[in-house]
Amino acid sequence: MARRVRTTAAELIKAPHLDLAALKVVLDEARRADFEVRPAVEEEALNFAATLSLEDRQHLAEAIAERNDRIRRRSP
């Protein structure tokens, strides 16, 4: 659902007339959809991490930290 809503937002942005009110509604819907899905995604991630060895969990944690660093460097 969130992907569909973001696609709709992209279409609204490309429209000849930018309807800010409609765009805000669509983005609010996307945000709600993300928040509805997030707990299930986090639960799956926790369940997956619980199956890993300590060494694999350490590698996973390092990969997450590296990704966060890359994201931080790209942010203004």
Molecular structure report:
With 76 residues, this protein is an all-alpha fold. Helix 1 runs antiparallel to helix 2. Helices cover 86% and strands 0% of the residues. The mean pLDDT is 91.
Order of helices and strands: HHH
Q: Mean pLDDT, as a whole number?
A: 91
CA-based shape: elongated
Q: What is the helix content?
A: over 70%
Give the N-to-C terminal Cα separation.
Answer: 29 Å
Describe this structure in a few short sentences:
The chain is mainly alpha-helical. The chain has helices at 2-14, 20-50, 54-74.
Notable traits:
76 residues; mainly alpha; 3 helices; elongated
Topology:
Layout: H1 2-14, H2 20-50, H3 54-74
